[in-house]
Amino acid sequence: MAPGPGEEPRVWGIGDLNRRASRAVILDFRGQVWTEGELAGIDERRGSRYLQLVERGGGREGRDAHLAAYCSPTRWLRLERKLSEAGVALRAGQRLRLVGCLEIGDRGRLTMTVDDVDVAALVGARLRDRQALVRHLVADDLFDANRRLVLSPLPLRIGVVASAGSDGHRDLVRQLETSGFAFDVTLRSIPVEGPTAPRGVRAALATFGPADVDLAVIVRGGGAKASLDVFDQPAVAHAIATATVPVWTGIGHTGDRSVADEVAHRAFATPTAVGQAIVATVAGAWDDLAAALTRIGRLVDARLATTAAHVDGQWRAVSTLTRHRLTLHEQAHARSSSDLARSAAHCLDSRVDHLSTAAHRIRASGGAELRDAHRRLTDLSHDATGAARRRCVDAANDLAAGAGSVATGAATTLVAAGRPIQRAEMLLTRSRFDGLVDGQSAAVAGAGRRLTREVERRLAADTDRAAARRAVLEAYDPRRQLARGWTLTHTVDGRLLRRASDVDEGVTLVTTFAGGKATSTVTQVTRDDQEDPRHE
């Protein structure tokens, strides 16, 4: 009230004003008041909760209107239990309807003391948000996007999004480690509850690609039902829907399915169930692989048996052909050796005959010339003696004075006639004749030695080639392997045995050794379960 004339104005203290305004508010609203607004933030101090509500554009001149709310620790425990049972949690951005009493505190701010929260309205809002999110995902063709991805037939590289050391993380890893398979686990540790959880899930999934993992898994080990609200957030749903690898979820609540479960490749109630499903998938792929290997082994066995029979036939044909060729070569070699020997003998015989003929001619020619010269000498001597005698008789008286001259001329004539004879004798001496014979003999002997060396060289070369071919044939001879201690085991019908799996009890076998054969009957078969794949 305005002061009267001459009156002093009443001056109110700030505390009085706050108390007067608080009483006015209490009297005006008379007890509890319901209000609704957007939850802008929530803080916790010493067990109490401090909420900030806002009404967009609800203030003067279109500004936002704000209201602070307070909930005591005792009332908050009751409200938290109520919210958890309903499966909802308070988070920024929600439309919140609550009831309480208004007051103005010492700071002059209007504050509501919260008594209760309209949980039904929250559940309805959550359901509407979920439905709107699902409609948006379907419209963008993202609702089934992750399910359309093809899972690797042998998913051994697992990317895990979980809180490290939590119950969900331990349950999943325990299933993988005890499976007996070599899983490669990559962990991205993030908080799976609270306001930062949606951003953490989105960032963790963005690090997993086909080059890194075969399968991404999001697990959460228990907790309040209200904390499942994280997996209804658009950020989490979009992160799963747009992931480049299949995503499996194990949120940890039976009977509750979040939007994350709906858009995931597969969803399971618990982390343990996720681990069991991964192990079952790998075990099925392993069984399929083992069956395929068994089929391949049977095909390889059949092909090997056919190939072995073909190779045996080819080996026998090659052995027969090689032995035939070797026999022909040996025969040709023998003929060549015989021909060379005969040729050498014939050549030597021809050389000897030629030499003998030449020697005979030389001897015959030398003797005849010698006898002819001797005869001429004798005849000449007789003629000269007769002529001298006649001339001496005829001219004894007339040539008495020239007897010495006649005698000297006769002597000179005899000497002159004897010189050709002496030269012939010198030319046809025995040593000269022997030298000619020895020279021809040496030439024939040298030719014979050269011919013998050539024959021996050719025989040695042919013998070396025959020995090399014989060594190659002997290297492929199964008898050589038998001599080294190996044996060959066949059935009675001639089928070669290579593994214990080809033998049954009671079968009669024939074993070939280096020195003979032995027949036996199988009484027991012990098979190695881990046979060398090279024998398949």
Account of the protein in words:
This protein is of the alpha/beta class. It is built from eleven helices and 13 strands. Strands 1-2-3-5-4 form a five-stranded mixed β-barrel. A five-stranded parallel sheet has the order 7-6-8-9-10, sandwiched between helices. A three-stranded antiparallel sheet has the order 11-12-13, with no helix packed on it. Helix 4 (167-177) runs parallel beside helix 8 (271-394), helix 5 (197-206) runs parallel beside helix 6 and helix 8 (271-394) packs antiparallel against helix 10 (430-475). The longest helix has 124 residues, at 271-394.
Lay out the secondary structure:
Layout: H1 14-29, E1 33-45, E2 48-55, E3 65-71, H2 73-86, E4 95-104, E5 110-117, H3 119-139, E6 157-162, H4 167-177, E7 184-189, H5 197-206, E8 215-219, H6 234-241, E9 247-250, H7 259-263, E10 266-268, H8 271-394, H9 403-427, H10 430-475, H11 478-483, E11 488-491, E12 508-512, E13 517-521
Parallel strand pairs: 3-5, 6-7, 6-8, 8-9, 9-10
Antiparallel strand pairs: 1-2, 1-4, 2-3, 4-5, 11-12, 12-13
List keywords for this structure.
five-stranded parallel sheet; alpha/beta; five-stranded mixed β-barrel
Radius of gyration, CA atoms, in whole angstroms = 65 Å
Tell me the major beta sheet: 5 strands, mixed, barrel
The share of residues in extended strands comes to: 15-25%
Helical content band = 40-55%
Low-confidence stretches: none
Order of helices and strands: HEEEHEEHEHEHEHEHEHHHHEEE
In the sheet with the most strands, the strands line up as 1-2-3-5-4
Structural class: alpha/beta
Distance between the termini: 109 Å
Helical region count? 11
| Large-scale geometry | rod-shaped
